[in-house]
Amino acid sequence: MIGKLNHVAIVVPDLEAATARYRDLLGAEVSAVQELPEHGVSVVFVELGNTKIELLHPLGRNSAVAGFLARNPDGGMHHLCFEVKDLKEATEKMIRAGARVLGDGKIRTGAHGLPVVFLHPKDFDGTLIELEEIRQ
Ligand code: CO
C-alpha cells in the first residue's frame, strides 16, 4: 500500500546551523526557509534525489514541534512520510486494524498542501508516521 518515502522530518534546535551543515558539509541542495504559520513550523527542504529531508523548527506559539524540541533539546527524527495513492482507503484500513490515527482520524492538509494523516508512534515501533496522498 505505501509507496515511496516522501521525506524524513528532523526537528532542529538551530535551523540556520542545520541548513549550513547539510549544504556546506554534506554538500546537499537545500531550499530557502519557508515559514508555515498554520503548521507552526519553519522548514528547509534538503533534496536528495530519491527522497527529501525536512528540517523543522518551531514557529510561533502552539507549534506542534515545540514540545518535541523541549523533550529533545539536541533535536531528533520527528517522523517518516510515506506516499499513498488513496489516503481515505489507507486511513480506513488503519482504523479497522486498530491503529490510532491522530486528530480523530480526520484527513488534513499537510505542509505540502496535500492530504495527510499521522499515525500514532506507539502503533509503529516508536516512530510517528505520516501518510501523504500523492496522485500520479
Ligand atoms: Co511531514
CATH superfamily: 2,3-Dihydroxybiphenyl 1,2-Dioxygenase, domain 1
Write the element-wise H/E pattern from the N-terminal end onward. EHEEEEHEHEEE
Q: And the CATH topology?
A: 2,3-Dihydroxybiphenyl 1,2-Dioxygenase, domain 1
Number of strands: 9
Task: Explain how this protein is built.
It is a single chain. This protein has 136 residues and is an alpha+beta fold. The chain has one domain (5-133): 2,3-Dihydroxybiphenyl 1,2-Dioxygenase, domain 1 (Roll). The chain contains three helices and nine strands, in the order βαββββαβαβββ. The chain has helices at 15-25, 66-71, 87-96; strands at residues 5-11, 29-30, 34-36, 41-47, 52-58, 76-84, 108-109, 115-119, 128-133. Strands 1, 2, 3, 4, 5, 6, 7, 8 and 9 form a nine-stranded mixed β-sheet that branches. Strand 4 (41-47) and strand 5 form a beta hairpin. The protein is globular, with a radius of gyration of 15 Å. The model has no long low-confidence stretch (mean pLDDT 95). Residues 7, 9, 54, 79, 81, 111, 130 line the site of cobalt (II) ion.
Task: Supply the key terms.
136 residues, nine-stranded mixed β-sheet, alpha+beta, 9 strands, 20% helix, 2,3-Dihydroxybiphenyl 1,2-Dioxygenase, domain 1, 3 helices, binds cobalt (II) ion
SSE diagram, text form:
Layout lengths: L4 E7 L3 H11 L3 E2 L3 E3 L4 E7 L4 E7 L7 H6 L4 E9 L2 H10 L11 E2 L5 E5 L8 E6 L3
This protein binds cobalt (II) ion (CO).
The site of cobalt (II) ion has 7 residues, from strand 1 and strand 6.
